[in-house]
Amino acid sequence: MPLRSFSLPSESMSPTILKDENFLVRKNNTMPKRGELVVFQYPLNQDTRFLKRCVATGGDTIAIKDKDLYLLPKEGNSYVKAHYTNEQIVDIKGILWIKNPYQNEHSGIHTDDTVKKGETYFPKQLFEMAPIIVGDNSIFVMGDNRDHSNDSRFWGTVPAELIYGKPTIVSTNFEDFDRIGRKLK
Known about the structure:
The chain is mainly beta. The chain has a single domain, classed as Umud Fragment, subunit A (Ribbon), CATH 2.10.109.10. It has 2 helices and 12 strands, in the order ββββββαββββαββ.
């Protein structure tokens, strides 16, 4: 499968991938799994490619409360009990949700403490989002730098036909040579 180099013009994935850092992407149009990084065509301008983390797939329900991400996987309660720790599970009227499901595995996911609810210049989607069900053959994506990312919270899900591929390694970083060759996950 062909590899292609991309770079990120923003801090939306920092520190997982840094601004202006080049990374290689393996082209494959398969649906990413929850928690995986994915490069796709921006739904509002398909000439532009974005890189984000897939946080939900078709049939999953997703919500945000006080900046915390909540995932209700389509597989249901038994799946949640088998795959997540008690500390991550939140029982809401007998339905098990996972609170911040990817932060234990991906340490780069974070919020900015200076971005506070009630300040008029911060969009409400950073703090609260009513539950939505992700449509079939679509994914819901978010940046790891949660409070500084233009993602599905603002423009919706990414349909399968816009998925380009999965980033593999950092190929160039002129500020920090130690990051070159770093595997992306």
